[in-house]
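Researcher: Sequence recovery benchmark, item below. Answer with residues only.
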């Protein structure tokens, strides 16, 4: 049987998924191998150095830098509080002394006899890493973090913004092609992951942010709506750090487009289940896709189904999505993979495949114009 390999989105009801959760600098790991963790559990913690505040004590006390040390009431390493007296001038004949109060709280890091400058380091800033995946700790990376594993239903999108979020899946549309409009967003969707169908409107997203939804997932979005919500044009860097209050995931592409049936049906089957989402996306080298991760429970039928193969293998019978015109967005099964190059409409020659799309039509497209829908 003819086969090939192509990149693609993962949409599967059963996958043994692993995530690596590590700190930016060395710290304390709070769990051990074999522990069961919830997505919101803190698995590792560290403290970043606080902000440094320079204070020119020579200038504040109106003395030469070399005289600062003897006027200080505190030394390097001492903790100080805001408005606490930390230096006192000698005055004149013991009178008219001037007290200097610290403008900040923290720890005195250094006092320079050369410049007369004091550095106050603010309180350490805690950095915590949540599990993200509800599952089992299978590896501990000493002083750094952990690897967590779980059986999940897993869906990747095309594009997203916003970081990690956790909530309950809530269907807002009845059909994959139904647009997600403002009237479908209700106050009881607070802390939930709203699942739409076709294009999500800008007003619907703003209403979702207003009611406190943690994420919105739908097939498409207008680029102008996205620009208006963000207040700026996105560049080519990694997304995920946007602070709009709600993460957004687009599963199919920009514009008016219906959600793939298998994606919609998988989300519908898991309505009411807890899930983790991450809108972070990177388009260039080191591709990163936004994702929806739904941990399977023992009673879920998918938990006992065979695990999906996730190797990028393109063969007869696999599902693909066309990513170029004139069939952009069409989804179907590969019918054949002719080995010999064929002439295209542009008169160039390329290796092609034939696809039976959901409408029942068979189309022929270059292999480079499809992506695999794995799972």
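Model:
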């Amino acid at each position: 049987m003819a086969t090939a390999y192509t990149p693609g989105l993962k949409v599967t009801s059963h996958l043994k998924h692993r995530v690596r959760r590590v700190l930016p600098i060395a710290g304390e790991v709070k769990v051990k191998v074999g522990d069961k963790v919830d997505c919101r559990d803190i698995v590792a913690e560290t403290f970043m150095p606080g902000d440094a505040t320079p204070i020119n004590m020579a200038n504040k006390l109106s003395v030469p830098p070399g005289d600062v040390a003897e006027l200080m009431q505190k030394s390097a390493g001492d903790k100080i509080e805001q408005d606490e007296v930390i230096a006192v001038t000698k005055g004149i004949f013991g009178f008219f002394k001037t007290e200097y109060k610290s403008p900040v709280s923290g720890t005195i890091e250094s006092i320079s006899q050369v410049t007369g400058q004091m550095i106050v380091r603010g309180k350490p800033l805690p950095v915590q890493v949540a599990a993200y995946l509800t599952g089992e700790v299978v590896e501990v990376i000493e002083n750094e973090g952990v690897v967590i594993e779980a059986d999940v239903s897993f869906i990747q999108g095309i594009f997203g913004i916003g970081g990690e979020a956790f909530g309950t899946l809530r269907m807002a549309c009845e059909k994959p092609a139904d647009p997600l409009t403002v009237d479908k967003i209700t106050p009881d969707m607070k802390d939930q992951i709203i699942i739409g169908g076709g294009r999500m409107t800008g007003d619907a997203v703003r209403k979702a942010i207003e009611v406190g939804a943690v994420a919105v997932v739908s097939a498409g979005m207008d680029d102008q709506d996205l620009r208006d919500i963000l207040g700026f044009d996105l560049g080519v860097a990694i997304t995920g750090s946007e602070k709009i209050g709600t993460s957004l995931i687009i599963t199919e592409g920009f514009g008016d487009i219906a959600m793939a049936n298998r994606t919609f049906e998988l989300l519908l089957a898991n309505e009411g289940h807890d899930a983790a989402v991450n809108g972070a996306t990177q388009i260039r080298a080191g591709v990163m896709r936004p994702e929806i991760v739904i941990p399977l429970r023992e009673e879920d039928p998918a938990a006992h189904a065979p695990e999906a193969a996730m190797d990028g293998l393109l063969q007869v019978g696999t599902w693909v999505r066309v990513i170029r015109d004139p069939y952009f967005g069409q989804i179907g099964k590969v019918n054949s993979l002719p080995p010999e190059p064929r002439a295209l409409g542009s008169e160039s020659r390329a290796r092609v495949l034939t696809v039976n799309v959901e409408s029942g039509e068979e189309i022929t497209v270059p292999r480079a114009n499809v992506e695999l829908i794995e799972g």
